[in-house]
Write a structure and sequence with these properties.
By secondary structure, the chain is mostly helical. The chain has a domain at 43-82. It contains 4 helices and no strands. It has helices at 9-14, 30-35, 52-60, 65-79.
Length: 82
């Protein structure tokens, strides 16, 4: 990707919870979690043609390769939305 992150990941990793300003974020209480709903996008079986080496690389990463392919496609989709 040509757009690198501008986040200072080293500084962030060293920050403890007390060092994070959460004053503008409401605390999630029991009522929130009682009312919370999980919405997952529906899955649809499709046939897709991939280069053999690409497919073998994903399969070589172990179980869940289709999920990983889907996650990468979702990230690409979100990055390129208008």
């Amino acid at each position: 990707m040509s757009n690198g992150s501008k986040t200072d990941w080293d500084r962030l990793a060293k920050t403890d919870d007390q060092g994070i300003d959460t004053s503008d974020i409401p605390e999630l209480n029991d009522d929130f979690f009682r009312r919370a709903e999980v919405h997952l996008p529906g899955k649809k079986a499709v046939t897709i043609r991939l280069d053999a080496d690409v497919l073998e690389w994903f399969k070589g990463q172990g179980a869940g390769y289709q999920t990983r392919i889907n996650q990468l496609l979702r990230q690409y989709m979100q990055a390129h939305r208008d």
